[in-house]
Design brief:
The relative contact order is 0.13. This protein folds into two domains: 69 residues, no CATH class; 228 residues, no CATH class. The protein is α+β, with helices and mostly antiparallel strands and 376 residues long. The termini are far apart. A five-stranded mixed sheet has the order 5-3-4-6-7. A two-stranded antiparallel ribbon has the order 1-2. Bound molecules: 2-acetamido-2-deoxy-beta-D-glucopyranose (2 copies). The site of one 2-acetamido-2-deoxy-beta-D-glucopyranose (NAG) has 2 residues, from loops. Pfam families: Sulfotransfer_2.
C-alpha cells in the first residue's frame, strides 16, 4: 500500500514527463530517476500503470491514423496535374449547375432507352456512346457471364440480368430508378467529338461514314450552302467530312436535326438535372474513378486480373496533359464562328460537368473546391 502511494506521488511530481509524444522513452527515464529518488522500486504496479498510459496513447495514435486515412480516401487524388474530385463534390456541382443554368426539364424522359439496368448489382447505368461505354459494358458483362475474357459486343443487351429501362413496365421503371444506384460516365464533349471523328468518320471507315451521315445529307448540304457558300450534293458513299467540316455542321445544324447518338449531348442522353446520379465517373480519370464502382461491385480477382479489362482501363491513365494538348492542336483550324456554335450546342455538357474550353489554353475540367484550388 505504502508502495502504491509513493509510486503515484512519484509520477505526479513530474508532470513534464507525462507530456504526450515524449511519453514512451522519457517517461520511463523519469519513472526510474524519480522512484530511485524516493527510494521505492515497486516494479509490478508501476509497470502496469505505465502500460495503461502507453496503451491509451497507442489507441489515440491509432484513432488519429484511422481518421487521417479515411480523410485521404475521401479527399482529392491526383493524376498528373488533375486532382480527382470526390463523388459528393461532383454530385453537388451538377445540382448547383442545374439551378444556376436554369435548365428546363424535358417533358418526355429521354433517358429511358439509354439506361441499362443490371439487376444483379442493382445498378442503373446511363450509357453514352464514345464515353467509355464499352469498358463499362465489358466489366458488367464479364461479371454477369462469369467470363474473364468477355468483351462487350452486340450480345450485351441479351445477357441474362441486363435490361434496358425503356423495355420495362412503367411501374417497374419507377421502382428501379428509386432503389438502384444510378451511374453516369462523362467526358469532355470536344474530346468526344474528336473520338467520334477518328474512330468512325475517316474515309477508311466507309460503312460507318454511310451509317452516320447518310440520314443527315440535307443538313450537310445546307451547311455547305449557308456557311461555306458553295452548292454541293454530299454523297456519303463517296465522300466524308473533314474534322473542320464535321464540327462546322454540328455547330450550325445540330438544332436543325444533325444529331446522332454518337454526338448527341450527354445532357440529352441522361438528363442529369432530373436524375440524381449516385456515381459520376469521368473517362479522363476512369482508372481512378473505377475505385468508386469497384467498391460497389466488388469484382472478384479473376476479373481484376483479366487482360481485356486491364487493356481498356489503361488508356485512361495516359497523361491527361498530353491529351488536352492534342485536343487544342486538333481544334486549331476550327473558325471562331464554328467554335461559338459548338459552345452553344454543348453548353450544358460543359457547364453541368465542370468542363471548360479556352482557345488558348484548350480543354480543361475545373470544379472549384472553395479554397482557390480546383478538382475534376
Ligand atoms: C429561367 O427560365 C424561365 C423560363 O424559361 C424564365 O421565366 C426565368 O426567368 C429564368 N430564370 C433565370 C434566373 O434565368
Ligand atoms: C467469353 O467471352 C469471349 C468474348 O466475348 C467469347 O469469345 C467466349 O466464347 C466466352 N467464353 C465463354 C466460356 O462463354
Amino acid at each position: 500500500m505504502q508502495d502504491k502511494v509513493s509510486n503515484f506521488k512519484c509520477l505526479l511530481k513530474s508532470p513534464a514527463c507525462l507530456r504526450l509524444g515524449t511519453m514512451s522513452s522519457a517517461s520511463l527515464t523519469c519513472y526510474r530517476c524519480l522512484c530511485a529518488f524516493t527510494g521505492v522500486l515497486p516494479k509490478r504496479k508501476m509497470t502496469k500503470l505505465t502500460y495503461s498510459i502507453l496503451a491509451i496513447i497507442a489507441v489515440g495514435l491509432l484513432l488519429i491514423g484511422m481518421y487521417r486515412l479515411s480523410e485521404f480516401s475521401r479527399g482529392p487524388l491526383k493524376i498528373g496535374f488533375l486532382t480527382v474530385c470526390p463523388q459528393d463534390i461532383r454530385r453537388r456541382y451538377i445540382k448547383e449547375a442545374c439551378s444556376r443554368m436554369n435548365v428546363t426539364r424535358p417533358s418526355k424522359p429521354p433517358y429511358l432507352k439509354h439506361i441499362v439496368i443490371d439487376h444483379w448489382h442493382k445498378l442503373a447505368y446511363c450509357l453514352i456512346p464514345k464515353v467509355g461505354s464499352r469498358t463499362i459494358r465489358t466489366i458488367l458483362g464479364a461479371l454477369l457471364t462469369r467470363n474473364a475474357s468477355y468483351v462487350s459486343g452486340m450480345d450485351f443487351p441479351r445477357i441474362p440480368g441486363i435490361s434496358i429501362l425503356a423495355n420495362m413496365p412503367p411501374s417497374l421503371q419507377q421502382q428501379v430508378m428509386e432503389k438502384y444506384k444510378k451511374m453516369i460516365v462523362v467526358r469532355h464533349p470536344y474530346d468526344r467529338l474528336l473520338s467520334v471523328f477518328d474512330s468512325k468518320l475517316l474515309p477508311t471507315h466507309r460503312e460507318m461514314v454511310v451509317e452516320l451521315l447518310a440520314k443527315n445529307v440535307r443538313q450537310i448540304n445546307k451547311y455547305f450552302s449557308d456557311v461555306k457558300g458553295k452548292e454541293t450534293s454530299f454523297d456519303p458513299n463517296e465522300q466524308t467530312l473533314s474534322f473542320e467540316e464535321f464540327v462546322g455542321v454540328i455547330s450550325s445544324q445540330y438544332n436543325a436535326g444533325f444529331r446522332d447518338r454518337h454526338w448527341k449531348t450527354m445532357f440529352e442522353h441522361c438528363d442529369p438535372c432530373t436524375i440524381e446520379y449516385d456515381f459520376v465517373l469521368r473517362l479522363e480519370t476512369l482508372a481512378k474513378d473505377y475505385r468508386v464502382l469497384s467498391s460497389y461491385l466488388h469484382p472478384p480477382k479473376w476479373l481484376t486480373n483479366s487482360a481485356p479489362y486491364l487493356e481498356q482501363m489503361k488508356t485512361s491513365l495516359l497523361n491527361p496533359e498530353e491529351k488536352m494538348f492534342n485536343l487544342l492542336w486538333r481544334y486549331e483550324n476550327i473558325d471562331s464562328v464554328s467554335l461559338e456554335g459548338l459552345k452553344n450546342v454543348y453548353e450544358k455538357d460543359l457547364g453541368l460537368f465542370g468542363y471548360t474550353w479556352d482557345v488558348e489554353k484548350g480543354a480543361n475540367c475545373r470544379i472549384p473546391l472553395g479554397d482557390g484550388t480546383y478538382c475534376c
